[in-house]
Amino acid sequence: MAPKTNLQLIQECDNFPYYEDDSEFYERHMSNYHTFKVNGCNAVLGYIPNSIVEKFHWIENDWKVDSTARTVTLMAAPDAEPAVRNEIMTRLIAEAVRRETFEVLKGWRNEMYPIYAPGGKFLMEIERCASPLFGIITYGVHMTGYVEDEKEGMKLWVARRSKTKQTYPNMLDNTAAGGMSTGEHPYACAIREAAEEASIPAAVFEERARPVGVLTYFYVRDARAGGETGLLQPEIEYVYDIKLDASHTVKPCDSEVEDFRLWTVDEVRQSLKEGEWKPNCAVVILDFLIRHGILTPENEPDYLEIMARIHRRLPFPTVKFLK
Amino acid sequence: MAPKTNLQLIQECDNFPYYEDDSEFYERHMSNYHTFKVNGCNAVLGYIPNSIVEKFHWIENDWKVDSTARTVTLMAAPDAEPAVRNEIMTRLIAEAVRRETFEVLKGWRNEMYPIYAPGGKFLMEIERCASPLFGIITYGVHMTGYVEDEKEGMKLWVARRSKTKQTYPNMLDNTAAGGMSTGEHPYACAIREAAEEASIPAAVFEERARPVGVLTYFYVRDARAGGETGLLQPEIEYVYDIKLDASHTVKPCDSEVEDFRLWTVDEVRQSLKEGEWKPNCAVVILDFLIRHGILTPENEPDYLEIMARIHRRLPFPTVKFLK
């Protein structure tokens, strides 16, 4: 296999078309989707492939499907509480599970993901594995543990995913990462995942980790993600750097990680070229290498395109953590 | 004056509309512009306001203006050398200077800015002050000198612009910054500006500065930029952090800077709220505060919108520094 360029790694995660690249193609492409809305809120919350719209058993009164405007609207009263919308969604998904309509619903997580209105108002939630059916934004945290070695320079703590993981088994992963469920805040999620996945104690995280930005991309799911292909997964990943002591050893805690290795930047870059990384973890590493001055405008010909693509402005409302 | 939010500061720099916010408004808005092209290259290189197209004296054979398709095309042969395109552009601009057609041309810089084709091929160049008439991408570098003070925490070297500067007199500015002319690379430009504007010796820069990313935004010029308003200035700013010793004093070198002060993060944040910063320098500071974990997802409600807006994917081809 030819070595992958860094831009190719980005393109594996950010592969939904851009209007500005070819507006006619984009508009034609958009006719493959229904927009997902809730009654009383003008914003589009996600895109649902037409093929998925056809397979759901939409319950009248609960849902309004307009195949001309290509919209699917959840019909709770405009001023309904989130719980009312949740019930309608749960009813729909439960029926799809019963009928075994969708592959992705076989990966039930029992974890709820939030959906927000403009201004960051919490609208409702949806079971994690059902979220790509509606193409809503999902939120997560990723963190990179690293060491400044006096002799060998910077080294990164790299995880190898367990061989038995449902998705991307045996691929390389960030030091720790995880999805944010309803109500969770990025920092709290990061501190939990650091402990659960990489045995990093909360006190170490609090002293040594810092938030360094957020990465966003618009992912069209392929076979490696499992389940139906072509589902949309616009993602927001809050990113943390953890500068660890050379004496600190990162070790697995739960069964999700096979092992950890402390790699030089050259070893990391070689493994990226060889396509060994889970796609969205490669994005996190590339951002790390850019922020730490290892990838530069002069040594990475696609520097500009990479930076814009991993900070994509998504076309849906997003969370606001209010002060 | 009400204190400015960080998002408001970003909006002052990134104020060209987004297709995804309101596609009908966007398309109506685009009818105010002609696209700028060169013969033989399919890409759009910039947007020219219709009011500017009307005022230029387009020379037949040199230029093709199509008011139905709303395109202005520079008609050198498709395989022409850049010098041929440059001559055509120079002829047009010289005539506009002679007739005093445009205010912006009174700020002649005698500095050439490059224009690239897709793939990063150098197409031609244009006098710096004329570039907003064509709405082409311009490139620059910005850097932030900072100190880790044991008692007071992080402090930033902030410049006050000279009272006599043509643009944004007396406003706050980054430690050093400057535009990249044809042929210049970011690192070389940064090292030059650090010496010229902040008396930072090349050896100090080489030891202590690192490239940390690139900021991009689409600026619609207002009165503060000088000259015609409504001209477009999509910008790309390569960003550097310079971690200085507490003993190092940053001092002005040329006449562009009034003085430097070493400010705490709180002092910097207060001055941002008070609107004291040149708009695109505020963007650089906000990115710095995010990368250094001072602005966080939890304390900045517009974290996501800010990060996407300052890494905007511009709709024109960009430079590639080839390895």
What is the secondary structure topology, with strand pairs?
Two copies of one chain form a homodimer.
Chain A: H1 6-11, H2 23-30, E1 33-38, E2 46-49, H3 50-55, E3 63-66, E4 71-74, H4 82-98, E5 112-116, E6 122-127, H5 131-134, E7 138-149, E8 153-161, E9 172-173, E10 176-179, H6 186-198, H7 202-208, E11 209-220, E12 232-243, E13 257-264, H8 265-273, H9 279-291, H10 303-309
Parallel strand pairs in A: 1-4, 7-12
Antiparallel strand pairs in A: 1-2, 3-4, 5-6, 7-8, 7-10, 8-9, 8-13, 11-12
Describe this structure in words.
Two copies of one chain form a homodimer. With 323 residues, chain A is α+β, with helices and mostly antiparallel strands. Chain A folds into two domains: 182 residues, Nucleoside Triphosphate Pyrophosphohydrolase (Alpha-Beta Complex), CATH 3.90.79.10; 103 residues, no CATH class. Chain A is 28% helix and 27% strand. In chain A, strands 7, 8, 9, 10, 11, 12 and 13 form a seven-stranded mixed sheet that branches. Chain A has a four-stranded mixed sheet with strand order 2-1-4-3. The longest helix of chain A is centred in the N-terminal third of the chain and has 17 residues. The mean pLDDT of chain A is 96.
